[in-house]
Amino acid sequence: MPTLYRRMLNVLPRLGVDVHNLGRGxxxxxxxxxxxxxDERPIxxxxxxxxxxxxxxxxxxKYQVNCVFDxxxxxxxxxxxxxxxxxTGRIVSFxxxxxxxxxxxxxxxxxxxxxxxxxxxxxxxxxxxxxVDWNTMNSLLPxxxxxxxxxxxxxxxxxxxxxxxxxxxVMPEALAGLIDPRPYLKMDTQGFDLEVFAGAGxxxxxxxxxxxEVAVLRLYEGSPPMSESIAAYEAAxxxxxxxxxxxxxxxxxxxxxxDCVMMRASAAPSLPA
Length: 273
Fold this sequence. Notes:
Strand content: 25-35%
Shape: globular
Largest sheet: 7 strands, mixed
Number of domains: 1
Low-confidence stretches: 34-39
């Protein structure tokens, strides 16, 4: 006899909600569009978000990661996702803007293993004006012409003075007290990831893995193309384990940005003989 859960799922298509089985008791629900019942983009992107989360969570376990650097934390969405997927180690989040940082403080308040810092990370220690009021897309870089055409929010011009630190300078405090630190670097800084990476200096060798949002179609002036970013990461010893589309163009289907997950193969724990 079908369970109540399964009977409810069977009813949803009659109500205009499509049910997509992702396996192992997980389903994706999408509202059917009357305008285009064959539009698969929302399904693809939601599935990519699900897959990258589980892929990263599995790698954190496999590589015995005990500290995640969450750079570009916004209000803590990434860290909360890691917790929901079973990661219990230390998280160190960096968010420079005052409004998002206030929400980050609230999100992390009851988690003793979640540190937060109100600053950005970059190539040098300095202060700089940051474009804000762009929701989750606040950036130290100006919007490109392509970005302005794509997002109306880029028409806003308010800025906020923020502090920028170097990654190698914040690492001693972030890793303090950990025996055999095995850190993982997540970057989502709206075009500034390669600057964050440069600020690690030689300390990047301590990271067993990393994650970066790389641009195929650039939303920000001065942001590096995907090929340049990946070449820099590979030169530092990381190899791609997964590429997941973050956004696509509605008209063409072209991917705008990918979440690129990379690990240092030499850091993988040896299997028992």
